[in-house]
């Protein structure tokens, strides 16, 4: 996919900001270019791995080469799923709208459990999404499994319908920071992965994945199930090798193997029994 200089914003939009990915919405598709490493590979890997879980509502990504301003990037694409009346509202934006301050300020000084309870109750009271606590728990369990370090309050969202004035849950999105994908600043390819894994910090309630997930599960119970047969397909392995090379493939495979070995969510939950209802999208969030 090529985007040229002088892009016509009447048919789409482009976001290119310092410290963030190039994100393009064009012809009912979203494109994201890699910025810190192999974010696109992480998104596609997570898309395949999610088919082995009980998470039914998530974004599905495909590999894509993106040309922009005479540069070509690895990246990914996905379908836009909002109708003309719908918009994404992040939890931070929702809190600013109704409480007039960032949610992070409201959580200052609270315990991890109290932060979670405050957030869930706030979202439930505003949106009437009654199972938000379970959805949040499942999301953070998944982040812990894939080592997604970027689940801040602008990567947790709900969908608002401007016509009906109602809210609904948002598909799971933005797994690009999973699997140690930040090789520019955080996790250089030449470093030992097992040492790097121990350095990954979680968001948004605390920096310890285990502590954050345990707090959620103490309140809402374990929500994530992962089929014991989870694996990367041969086709996906070949695509990663072609697009990113052997070193990135080796990093992803070893990290996945480590997480499967350590996971509490692996069980005899067969992929064939899952009633998949996949929504595909990509979401541009600041």
What is the fold's blueprint, element by element?
Elements lengths: L1 E2 L8 E4 L7 E4 L2 E5 L5 H11 L12 E7 L2 E9 L6 E5 H9 L3 H5 L4 H16 L4 H15 L10 E5 L4 E4 L23 H5 L11 H12 L5 E2 L6 H11 L1 H17 L3 E2 L19
Parallel strand pairs: 1-5, 10-11
Antiparallel strand pairs: 2-3, 3-4, 4-6, 5-6, 7-8, 8-9
Helix pairs in contact: 4-7, 5-7, 8-9
Chain-averaged pLDDT: 89
Q: Indicate the radius of gyration in whole angstroms.
A: 19 Å
Number of strands: 11
Low-confidence stretches: 2-12, 14-19, 273-286
Widest sheet: strand ordering: 1-5-6-4-3-2
**What sequence of helices (H) and strands (E) makes up the elements?**
EEEEHEEEHHHHEEHHEHHE
- Figure out the total of helices: 9
Largest sheet: 6 strands, mixed
Shape: globular
- Structural class of the helix and strand makeup? alpha+beta
Kindly state the percentage of residues in helix: 25-40%
Q: What oligomeric state do these chains adopt?
A: single chain
Tell me the distance between the termini.
Answer: 23 Å
- In percent, how much strand structure appears in the residues? 15-25%
Task: Give an account of the 3D structure.
This protein has 286 residues and is an alpha+beta fold. It has helices at 39-49, 91-99, 103-107, 112-127, 132-146, 193-197, 209-220, 234-244, 246-262; strands at 2-3, 12-15, 23-26, 29-33, 62-68, 71-79, 86-90, 157-161, 166-169, 226-227, 266-267. The strands form 3 sheets. It has a 6-stranded mixed β-sheet with strand order 1-5-6-4-3-2, with helices on one face. A 3-stranded antiparallel β-sheet has the order 7-8-9. A two-stranded parallel sheet has the order 10-11. A hairpin with a 4-residue loop joins β8 (157-161) and β9 (166-169).
